[in-house]
Amino acid sequence: MHRQNVPTRLQALTHRLAAKSLTFALAALVIFGGVGGDFRSAAAAADDDSKQIVDVALGNGFTLAVAKDGTLWSWGSNGGGKLGLGKSAASASSPVKVQGVNRIVAVSAGVNHAMALKADGTVWTWGFNVQGELGDGTYTEYGEPDSSGASRISIDRSGYVPQQVPGLADIVGIAATSAGGTAWNAAGEMWQWGNARVSGTILKERLSPQKNDAVGSVVFVSAGNGLLTTVDKDGTVWTQGWNTFGQLGDGKRDESGRIGTIQVEGIANVERVMTDGATVLAFQRDGKVFEWGVSLLETKGLNRTDPAHYGQMPHHLQPTVTPALQGFSEIRNTTNLLVKPSLLGLKTDGTVWTFGDNALGQLGVSGVAERYSWGQVAGLPQSSTVKGAFGSNLAVGKDGSVWAWGRNDYGQLGDGTTVTRKTPVAIGGFGSVPVKPDLPAKYKLVVNGKEVALAASPVVKGTAVTLSLADAAKAFGAKVAYDKNKTTATVTRGKSKIVLKKGSAQATVNGKTVKLASAVPATWLVSADWLAKQLGGTVKVDSAKLTISVTLK
Q1: What angle do CA 317, 320, 321 make, to 5 degrees?
Q2: Which residue from 536, 516, 535 is spatially nearest to 526, judged by alpha carbons?
Q3: Is 196 helix (H, G, I), strand (E, B) or coil?
Q4: SS3 15
Q5: Which of 111, 215, 303, 314 is the most exposed place for a label (fewest CB within 10 A)?
Q6: For residue 233, what pLDDT band results from cuts at 50, 70 and 90?
């Protein structure tokens, strides 16, 4: 089979890959030796292929990078094996070389899993496998819920190191979905897998790659939450999935979605598409940008995952030219809090621009709470690509340098810290001796003098303690009840009642609205120290003895 040589193919794939699935339904909900990086100059980076980065990807609290020499690097949270560093590693705030794979030409990240494409055309996956993300025919199985309603793993089939996806060969492009993947070959044939859990049931036919016969000449793929978009070699665009806001581009709006794949009428000569699941952007070869679905720049104050807001959401039912989106070659949705959108854009001249919320430094400028107009990010070299997700932003310079800013609670920016960065910092450490990942500190939880068994170890940063809501509630003697869609949780203990909503930075405590330090993630990982205090308790963290002591009346 015809195959491009590796350097040419690498350059093409770097621009061909779709962004990580920017899954709004999971928003609030995605590192290298030495703070500030170690790129001495553009020439220094260019002289060493192991230090020149050609592709990056962001997921939920983790980041991946591919160097020009084909080495793969990862940093951030290793929950469920997302970093590919093995089961014992908890996190890495500096870059760690991923062992066992080489000659990598591209990466893509879902919410909690990752994909890599090797120069030989094979595809490799690792991370969560709850919905068949790994494409190996298996999935992580859960037993009966415990007394608090929390799901418990009975058979863990997560991928803690990269493993080859069976049945795929001669692949030239990959794109992760929120909980699955797509891959296509030089002939444009495309395979899909994952996202197999539907209404609590696993559709086993989705656990392994299945060929999509509705498309036959794919050259570009972008996937968002519940939406798949592809570009055919003839420049036409095809969509499949939900249509709540008209994101299929067929002039209609409904919640039933489409099982099959349909062509978007009224648009041609498209080079690539980008979608977050609710909006589709199409970039024509002549530079013109079209959008349909949710109007990207008009969503402040609206939550696209809340049915109560569906009717208010500005949208386009067909491809529309929006003046404020012109001149861009890439636009990423980096929203962390649903009602306060933030965007990251790369213009055709290599400059980087931002828009929206700045609570976590997403704008790349200090002293500004928000700015709902485009503004250029200062201090960056000419860039070749930008990636962003969940409040974290990356820019890759044309010189191979990497720059990061924004949310950094898991070390996903790669500057050796977990400190939020309001302005871009250069990230270094590639090509150096691999930094060992941080091993998890095994804290124990003691409630009213008695140690409590937990499904997963608490994450402790200073006096802040993070636990799953189910574990925290059970440990504190509280009950948790979820609504039908599991978007709202009600915690009760005695006369205390706390209501939390996924994606919201506000909670209701005994009938009063209170602000949270950050929005509730889709994983339902919560501030256990805050929860204990709302239930009338006190919390003490002893880092020397690795003990969290909670006293409750």
Answers
A1: 165
A2: 516
A3: coil
A4: helix
A5: 314
A6: very high
- Write down the residue that tokens 């192991």 correspond to: 50
Smallest Cα–Cα separation from 184: which of 199, 194, 174? Answer: 174
Are residues 309 and 205 part of one domain?
Answer: yes
Phi, psi values for residue 48, rounded to 5°:
-125, 105
Q: How confident is the model at residue 40 (pLDDT cuts 50, 70, 90)?
A: very low
Contacts for 293-299 with beta carbons within 8 Å, 24 or more apart? 293/245, 293/246, 293/247, 293/249, 294/245, 294/247, 295/322, 296/322, 296/325, 296/331, 296/333, 296/341, 296/343, 297/322, 297/324, 297/325, 297/343, 297/355, 297/372, 299/341
- What are the E-state strand segments in 242-389? 258-263, 270-275, 279-284, 289-294, 315-321, 328-333, 342-347, 352-357, 370-376, 383-389
Which residue segment(s) compose the domain that 83 sits in?
6-427
Query: Helix count (H) and strand count (E) of the chain?
Result: 4, 44
Separation between Cα atoms, residue 1 and residue 171, nearest integer Å: 11
| Tokens encoding 224 | 């968002």
Is residue 24's pLDDT more than 50?
no
pLDDT of amino acid 17: 35
Number of Cβ within 10 Å of residue 479's Cβ equals 13
**What tokens does 456 get?**
């997963």
Q: Residue 21 falls within a domain, yes or no?
A: yes
**Same domain for 283 and 159:** yes
Q: Which of 397, 427, 457 is the last residue of a domain?
A: 427
In terms of Cα–Cα distance, which of 425, 429, 395 is closest to 97?
429
Secondary structure string (H, E, C) spanning 375-415: EECCCCCCEEEEEEECCEEEEEECCCCEEEEECCCCCCCCC
For residue 348, name the pLDDT band (cuts at 50, 70, 90): very high
Q: Rounded distance, CA 401 to CA 403, Å?
A: 7
**Reduced to 3 DSSP states, what percent helix, strand and coil does the chain have, rounded to the nearest 5?**
10, 40, 50
**Residue 241 placed within a domain:** yes
| Percent of the chain predicted with pLDDT > 70 | 85
In contact, 61 and 406? CB cutoff 8 Å: no
Tell me what pLDDT residue 92 has: 92
Answer yes or no: is 1 within a domain. Answer: no
pTM: 0.72
- Measured in residues, the chain has a length of 553
Whichever domain contains 119, its CATH number is 2.130.10.30
Helix H or strand E segment including 92: strand 91-97
